[in-house]
């Protein structure tokens, strides 16, 4: 048995976690934030600008730059696709009822979470780093 065969065999039988990054979407806050978990209803309020509850008012949502992860997050949480979210935020801004979360890439989100305990964001699980606390996980789709 040659080295190529051994490598192929090891790759085939390696656990799934070793082969691909964990793409489950999680919601994270700074470890400095006292929040331990959050309900989907509060998350919906936070990420749709409907911050009437005290918990939602104390959070600063951050949007991951346009990506499939972002689309999945909003589809799962609010039941809205990319175009529906654009239309929603256009109406909110036009009527002065709200502004969309600030868009950032994963590295910028990580840096802001470390410096601002009010920040809340969603990321693929594999991009969660030290200094972040997972407070919610998007349920797996059937």
**Number of helical runs?**
7
- Please tell me the overall pLDDT: 86
Structural class: alpha/beta
Helical proportion, percent range:
40-55%
Helix and strand sequence: HHEHHEHHEHEE
Number of strands: 5
Percentage of residues in strands: 15-25%
Note the main sheet: 5 strands, mixed
Cα end-to-end separation: 40 Å
Structure description:
The protein is of the alpha/beta class and 142 residues long. The protein contains seven helices and five strands. Strands 3-2-4-1-5 form a five-stranded mixed beta sheet, with helices on both faces.
List the helices and strands and how they pair.
Elements: H1 3-13, H2 16-19, E1 25-30, H3 40-47, H4 54-57, E2 60-64, H5 68-78, H6 82-94, E3 102-104, H7 106-115, E4 119-124, E5 132-137
Parallel strand pairs: 2-3, 2-4
Antiparallel strand pairs: 1-4, 1-5
Which structural traits does this protein have?
single chain, 142 residues, alpha/beta, 5-stranded mixed β-sheet, 7 helices, 43% helix, globular
């Amino acid at each position: 048995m040659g080295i190529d065969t051994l490598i192929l065999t090891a790759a085939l039988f390696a656990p799934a976690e070793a082969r691909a990054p964990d793409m489950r979407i999680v919601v994270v806050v700074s470890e400095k934030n006292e929040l331990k978990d959050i309900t989907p209803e509060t998350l919906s309020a936070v990420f749709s600008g409907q911050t009437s509850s005290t918990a939602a008012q104390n959070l600063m949502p951050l949007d991951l730059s346009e990506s499939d992860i972002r689309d999945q997050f909003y589809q799962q949480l609010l039941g809205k696709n990319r175009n529906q979210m654009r239309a929603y935020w256009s109406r909110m801004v036009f009527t002065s009822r709200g502004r969309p979360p600030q868009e950032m890439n994963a590295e910028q989100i990580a840096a802001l979470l470390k410096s601002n305990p009010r920040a809340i964001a969603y990321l693929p699980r594999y991009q969660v780093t030290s200094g972040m606390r997972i407070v919610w996980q998007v349920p797996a789709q059937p």
